[in-house]
Design brief:
6-stranded mixed β-sheet; 11 helices; globular; 397 residues; alpha+beta; 26 strands
Length: 397
């Protein structure tokens, strides 16, 4: 069977010979020359970033290379949450084309119409199947950029994660070809390629969905005309003893992606942190800007729910695709991993159970980007997976 992607996760500090040998090996495993490559490295690689990227491009024969730094890495059935290393995947996608585009905060501030980004990229929505995006959150207002990009490229999936740096250090590094860029990088996937996304948030709705009736910036004041804290307190009291134990530090606010659904279920909400609550005023502060009229429902998260949801979504996607993916990219949260599941390799390992041997690269990111409904959002505590499939006839045979 032809090989359209090859990947490895390598542990250890930067070593010129190891990078050169791996790039050469992955290239030799492909059925044809690489179309593009994706690489993630721990922050200690930043000092040698340009040399590191050049080695991959030269010895891997990679025309387009994108990626970023992260403190944790993902590979085939493997997750490395600590230590140095890099995760590299080379992709040869039949009939596809890719275009890499760097963007900065100046671009974000200059954008005033939906045509701005289309003019910059020279790509119309009909030209793009999906975007892979890796921004530096320390230099770009990513939420603003994401809103602009959704408007410029409506309904087109955007997948990725925020670049990360050393703990406590407000810096990160984004890679585009053989250089480090100051803002972010977006890779347009074009041609005979399809991207199927899985966004697993690992929460279940608790209580009832209620309309936001009063809010002040990120502070919920009333839900369904009742104090937001009172609603939260009542929801907590209705939990079982076991659920109350699980709820410590794992209660969240879920903002519905649409106000027009007749019934809400898991996956219909953007899950956001509760960052404070005041029983005297009845206010609840969340990591979002809720609007009056939006639907909100509190959420409960635990390891079993997170595992079950990812398993269910992978099964659904496996049935829906009708074809076998040739590569995968996973951006998962630091709040998952060993800390949530109690053991290593949970998300990557589960993906490998459903798609054995599927080449995969990725990282642990503080914020993940993925599509929910017909728009893409920034997420937390989420596993955001992109499954790459070829629509070329010679690949489907």
């Amino acid at each position: 069977m032809p090989t359209f992607a090859a990947s490895r996760l390598v542990s250890g500090p930067f070593d010129e010979a190891a990078v050169r040998e791996l790039a050469t090996q992955l290239r030799s495993e492909l059925n044809d020359k690489p179309s593009f490559g994706v690489v993630f490295a721990t922050p200690d690689y930043a000092e040698k970033a340009e040399e590191f990227l050049e080695l991959i491009r030269v010895y891997g024969h990679v025309p387009t290379l994108v990626g970023c730094t992260g403190t944790g890495l993902v590979g085939l059935a493997q997750e490395q949450e600590e230590g140095s290393g890099f995760s590299l995947m080379l992709v040869s996608a039949p009939g596809s084309k890719v275009t890499a585009f760097g963007f900065t905060q100046d671009n974000v501030e200059a954008c005033s119409t939906t045509e701005y980004w289309r003019d910059k990229t020279r790509l119309q929505p009909a030209d793009v199947k999906a975007w892979l995006v890796f921004p530096n959150p320390f230099t770009v207002s990513v939420e603003t950029w994401l809103k602009q990009w959704n408007q410029a490229y409506p309904h087109i999936p955007i997948f990725g994660g925020y670049a990360g740096g050393f703990t406590g250090d407000p810096d990160a590094w984004v890679f585009c070809n053989d250089r480090v860029v100051t803002g972010g990088v977006a890779l347009a996937l074009q041609g005979e390629i399809a991207v199927h996304s899985v966004v697993a948030q690992g929460c279940k709705p608790i209580g009832e969905p209620l309309t936001v009736t009063q809010a002040d910036r990120n502070v919920l004041l009333t839900l369904g005309s009742r104090p937001a804290y009172e609603v939260l307190s009542d929801v907590y009291k209705e939990l079982s003893d076991a659920e109350r134990e699980q709820a410590r530090g794992h209660l969240f606010a879920g903002i519905a992606v649409s106000e027009y659904l007749e019934e809400y279920k898991r996956g219909d909400f953007l899950v956001r942190n509760i960052i404070g609550a005041d029983p005297k005023s009845g206010a609840v502060a969340i990591n979002a800007m809720p609007r009056v009229g939006q639907t909100l429902q509190y959420q409960l998260r635990d390891s079993r729910m997170a595992s079950d949801e990812l398993r269910r979504l992978l099964l659904d996607q496996q049935v829906r695709m009708g074809t076998t993916p040739f590569a995968a990219l996973l951006c998962t949260c630091h709040g998952r991993g060993r800390g949530l599941f109690g053991g290593p390799d949970h998300d990557a390992g589960l993906i490998n159970q459903f798609f054995p041997g599927l080449p995969m690269a990725g990282l642990f990111a503080n914020v993940q980007i993925g599509q929910v409904g017909d728009r893409s959002f920034a997420h937390g505590y989420t596993a955001s997976l992109a499954l790459l499939c070829s629509t070329a006839k010679n690949h489907l045979l």
